[in-house]
Task: structure prediction
Amino acid sequence: MSWPVANVWLIPAIPIAISLVILSLAKSRRQSAAGLAIIGQVVALALSIAGFLETLQTPSFRAVQNFTWFTFGETALRIGWVLDPLAAAMLVMIALVGLCIFIFSIGYMADDKNFTRFFAYLSFFSGAMLGVVIANSLLLLFVFWELVGLASYLLIGFWIERPRAAAAAKKAFITTRIGDMGFFLGMLWLYHSSGTLLFYDDGNGCLESVGLAMLGASATFIALLIFCGAIGKSGQFPLHVWLPDAMEGPTPVSALIHAATMVAAGVFLVARVYPLFSLGTINGVTSSSLTVVVWIGVTTALMAALIAIAQADIKRILAYSTVSQLGLMMVSLGVGGVAAGIMHLLAHGFFKALLFLGAGSVIHGCHHEQDIRKMGGLRRLMPVTFLTYAVGMMALSGVPLFFSGGWTKEEILHATAHWPKSHVPYYLVLAGVILTALYMTRQVIYVFFGSPRAASAHARESPRVMTTPLIALALCAIFFSVVLTPGWPWLHGYLTGEPAQFDIKRSIQPMLFVSLVLVAAGIGLGVLVYGRAGMPDRRRPAEVDPFEYAQPALFHFLENKMWIDELYGRTVIAFSWMSARLSDWMDRYFWDGLVRAFGRLGQLFGIFTTNVDELGINAGVDETMTGTRGLGRVMSSWHSGQIQTYLGVIAIGMLALLLLYAWLV
Amino acid sequence: MAGLITALFLVPLLGALFVGVVPKNYARGIALGCNAITAIVALTAWRSFDPGAAGLQMIERHVWIPAIGAEYLVGVDGLSLLLVLLTSLVIPFAFFAQRMERGATALMLVMQSALYGTFTSQNFVLWFLFYEMSLVPAFLLIKIWGGENRDRAATKFFLYTFLGSVAMLLAFLGIYFVRGTFDFAALAALGKNGLLTGKFVWLAFAGIFLGLAVKVPLFPFHTWLPDAYENAPTGVSMVLTGVLSKMGVYGFVRLLLPLFPNEIKILSPWLLGLAVCSIVFASLAAWAQSDLKRMVAYLSVNHLGYCMLGLFAVSASPIVAARIDTHAALSGVFMQIFNHGVTAAALFYYVGLLEQRRGLRGINDFGGLMQRTPLLCGWMSVAMFSSLGLPGLNGFIGEFLIFKGSFAITASFTAVAVIGLLVTAIVFMRAMQALFSGPLVESCSAFPDLLRSEKLVVVPVTLLMFAIGIAPQFIFNVFNTTVVQMARLFA
Result:
């Protein structure tokens, strides 16, 4: 085993260790903090690339290192690391995107007073996510998974003095933890059924034939419980509510959460334990757990895309687009296109990081204004940001041929179209593609076109340290296409272990035209509807969205996120809080009331016995005492000590005796 | 090494006497000195303890009152040693947490002595003596140095636990008259084939169960606890939750489970139900508290509920149950005993720090602390995350194993218990949001951050949490053999 493979654990360990070092630094050591974090990320990237190169040597490369974490009773609990194409591809993407975001943050967070702490958290976040990717045990994956959750909590609530940020952080942690409890139960069940949590263990792992054979019918439940965790982390319906709120964190954090870490973890998890999901698949008929995945994914993709149309916050639009794209990835996994889903995840990592950082650059330029209706005309004021953002927008919309997102989306469409169970997801996904192009066009028109409005009037291009990562990510978003095309499906082959053939003719597939038409429709519709948005129309005031003008009720429904937050607030949350209050009340009054009643019973018994004592026994004794004492008093008065009285009594006695004697005789 | 165990409980007892006669200013010094000695003794015991050997070690046995079967018999197995180590850790922690008056110092030392005695005695008479001996100092400490409602809380605490003790004593007297021994090992051996016969066995079971259930406490016998913990001074709360609450769990493992295996098996659905109620309702009640100390107190009930879940699952397990599951559940329970002792004591310590600075401890009396006291917030968060079971910290190891073991044996109860894990997270998230976030509240604007002396206390405890969370083997080594032995006994 070569050095990079044997020491793959260093990839997460180094960023985490560095984050602890940074935490111990003084607040003023800003340069050391940023420097250390970036060095850690560079080293992680270098090691990831080294590991990646190792995986190229043989198709379906897989290197596993297992070791004992601890021994309880007589059982050794083993965990381990795995390096395979799935892990290696993710490693490189996470480390690379992370590095760009780290560099960008130097500029974006330059004025923040807790700069050092920010870099410590960032480094920790990245390290935890890298750990998720190379874990070879569901338990170890869960450990890093929770650490990712912790890091996101710390970073979303980074501006902790803002109540909204703190509330969003709490919401993220609790919402994802709801899913994690399902994940936890699924893990327990899996451990119980297969006897191991190792993924790969020389044929005995839970994802290998021996382990899978032991699962039987429980596999569906296990898979669905584990999927709960993915629903939470990847912001799938119905646990998606935390993701848009997470926009309260600094923008680089949003980029990290939405591109490389956190939300990617859920999709990755499903891909990692895919054998559990596909266990019930017989003769091409999808297992019931995968069917659930498809429908959850479709619902999420469409719902989020609809909501995105009616949002005004530049970051929230992107947040909902993430939710929607993650739904798309889930659909892809569900219909069997694992490689397509992961490819989209990787491509999405690049272009979504690009979009978020671009949004960060815009926000930075507009003095922390995030409302797109107050921007406009930034095309000329921030040219680099505009150009890179346009690349990101095209990639996200799925413009074919030149942008990575187009190829991966096409592949997903292809997989979905051939799903044997139903064609409904396919058509819904098609609708989602149009909507994506539509809301991205709307956003770009509002932000970059037209004439400058209130917030953007004095905008200036961001400094080099921020634009360089944008350019780098834009290049990634374009050139990543090279390995994605059907003409040379190298990445597909790399992930699935099949050799990729070069055949340029296959690049042109019917699906290419389908996606071309859909994207053109979406962008065209966007230009048509929003072309003059933000400018006063004949009838419509400038600040009113054209869609809102046409369909106010529908727009408000979408603008308010379909009132799902309110629904949860009135039902689940209200119910939980009520039960908490009820538990407290029961404790204070019912259970403790019983205890006090019991105590009072004892007290009453005490009073009763006292009274019996006082009135019954004691009174009798008292009477006797009084009688005796009275008698004593009388008797004692006889003992007066006066001789005359004694003599008198004696004389009277003698006299009485004499008289008695005389009478008797 | 002979006499180690005796030394362990004699040192604090002599220290207490000594504290009583020397001038006031020396009290703290003597107490800390005693704890240095007991720490050394405990560590020596740990070193000379053979982790591979089954059964009791370092036994000291002397005739005491042969007429009533009372023997001076002390010794340790893995579980006893674990609790001795925990006691040696938490008591000095409590002494560092709070400067106590001379009387309180002496009483704390008496309590420490009683705790060591309880965890090492292997004969009922001796054990019961120590068990009761811990009660009186705890009562007085709450009654004299406690908070607002100290009188009521102390009386409730004393009467409730004492009632339980009396029930337990009667049950044991009954057992003695039938079986003629007070020796734990002998009783356990008899328990395998039914300790008693007829209806009497249920009476004896009920007596011992009541005594221990109140002590742990197990739902619904827990209502004394929030009052007592809330009103006790910080250091005493730390010892109450850190060590005293473990006496009940210890009693379950040492007495009830080995003595009444069949009875427990019959009742197991009910007992598991009580454990799950402890977990769920206590965590929900913690959510509804506005007093920080009461909140932590309820979470103590919740965390001990996990211990009970694991124990009842073990005793409910069918004979064919895989050994890995009973081992997991028992190991998890022992791990949780230790971890909860450390973490809950730390939480009370932090609440104490906040109370010292503010004079109040309502969840809404603070706000925006992160801006003023980042170190205090940071270190306190570690304890909170440990308590909510974040992987990488100590709490997770025990909870994972308990759930692993009990899920395999009784999946439905375990699945419901998971709600407790979720609600605990909500409780701490709520607390962190209220305390640390938002704009800095006026009344907190003059808080000092962690002082040097406080850092000296906080850092080692936190490091221990990390150490157990990342590489827990050194704790498992203490009790692995005991776990295997007990699993065989209970099966």
In short: The first helix of chain A runs from residue 3 to 6. Chain A touches chain B through 50 residues (CB under 8 Å).
